[in-house]
Amino acid sequence: MTLDHKPGFAQAALNHLWQQRPGIHRHLLKWLDTITAPGEPGASRLTAICALLVELAFT
Q1: Rounded to an integer, what distance in angstroms lies between the CA atom of residue 46 and that of residue 35?
Q2: Which of 1, 57, 9, 4 is nearest to 29 (CA)?
Q3: Backbone dihedral region for residue 27 (phi beyond 0: left; psi -120 to 50: alpha; all else: beta)
Q4: With contact defined as beta carbons under 8 Å apart, do 34 and 40 qualify?
C-alpha cells in the first residue's frame, strides 16, 4: 500500500507523530529498520522513505 494518491499525507502524518508522540520515536525507528530490510515490503520504497526522513529532519 502506498499513499502516492494523497500527496503530502505521509509527510504530514510522520511529522505529526514525531512532534506529538515523542514516546514512540524509538519504536518508529525500529519499525522503519524492520520494514526497509532486504526482502521486506519497504525495501523497494527506500528512496521515498528516506526522503520523508530527510524532510522530518528539517522540521
Answers
A1: 9
A2: 57
A3: alpha
A4: yes
pTM over 0.85: no
Encode pLDDT of 1-55 as tens digits. Answer: 666 777 888 899 999 999 999 999 999 999 999 999 999 999 999 998 999 999 9
Kindly write down the DSSP assignment for every residue of 27-56, as one continuous string. HHHHHHHHHTSTTSGGGGGHHHHHHHHHHH
| Residue 53, all three cell numbers | 526522513
- Contact criterion met (CB below 8 Å) for 11 and 55: yes
CB 27 within 8 A of CB 10: no
pLDDT score for 1: 61
